[in-house]
Every structure is written in structure tokens, then in C-alpha cells.
Amino acid sequence: MNKLERITDIALPVIGGSVVGLLTTKHAKADFEKYKQPPFSPPKEAFGIVWPILYTTMGIARTITKSSRKDTEANAYVYYSQLGLNYLWSVLYFKFKLRGTALIESYALFASVLLTTVAFYKTNKFAGLLLIPYVVWTAYATYLNAGFVALNNNKEEYAEDI
């Protein structure tokens, strides 16, 4: 694996997350100001700090697993599946206001992140451990999604699919 491949693997989730963020930031800010938030909701600024760190650690973990002799095609499959689900969630929730669909997708994302973490851990313990904060944050984000739906589903403008 050459240096350009390593940089690309680390940059891909960061760039993808940034693009999704640009597409949904306006909608996300409006949601945080307009709707009830579940207990233990972070300030909206936290997301702009946490996600770049998580995307970077995802890329580093993928680079480590790709460099391992034990890397498998299954690692790539689960990794890119969770990454795609990650990007999709923001678009569903913020852009298209499909809050119920996003909640269901959030459970699928969480399962995919767990599978990726276990697969990476089996390939390289450090790579798997790098994904633990992502597992925790995805669980937390699923809680937030469920809380927003529970607190705001009676508002007609909140969702199109609840």
C-alpha cells in the first residue's frame, strides 16, 4: 500500500462526511432550534467537532486493516456499507425529513458499525479499538434520533413519514 492510497483511505470518509455536512447543515441547525430535544442532547456545535474526528479514525482504521496480511474482502464490504449508511442517515433525516425512516436506518447503521468494529478488531486489534468511539457515538445518535421522533412526532411539519 503506497502513501497516496493511505492518504486517500483516510481522506475519503472525511471528504464524504464534509460533503454530506454541507448538504444538510442548514437543515440541521433549523431542527435544533425549532424542535424539542431529548435529555442529554449535546450543543449543536458538538457535531462539527465530533464527526471529523470520527471520520478520520475510520479512515485510519481502514488503512491499518488494508495494510494487514489478514485483511479480507469482507472488511471492505462492511466498512463501505457502514460508511454509505452513515452518509445516507443525514440526508434522510435532515434533507428529506424522513425521520422514521432515518430511525430505522440508524439501527441498521449501528449494527453495521458493530460488524465493522468486530471485523477490524479480528484483523488488527488497534484498528478495531479505533472504532470504539464511533460505536458509542452511533449508539448515542440513535438515542437522539429516537428521542427527537418521540418528542416531536405530533408536529405535522416535523416529519413526512411518521
Automatic annotation (TrEMBL):
The chain crosses the membrane at residues 77-96, 102-121, 128-151. The keyword ATP-binding does not apply. One of its GO terms (cellular component) is membrane. It is found in: Membrane. It is a multi-pass membrane protein. Belongs to the TspO/BZRP family. This is Tryptophan-rich sensory protein. It comes from Jeotgalicoccus coquinae.
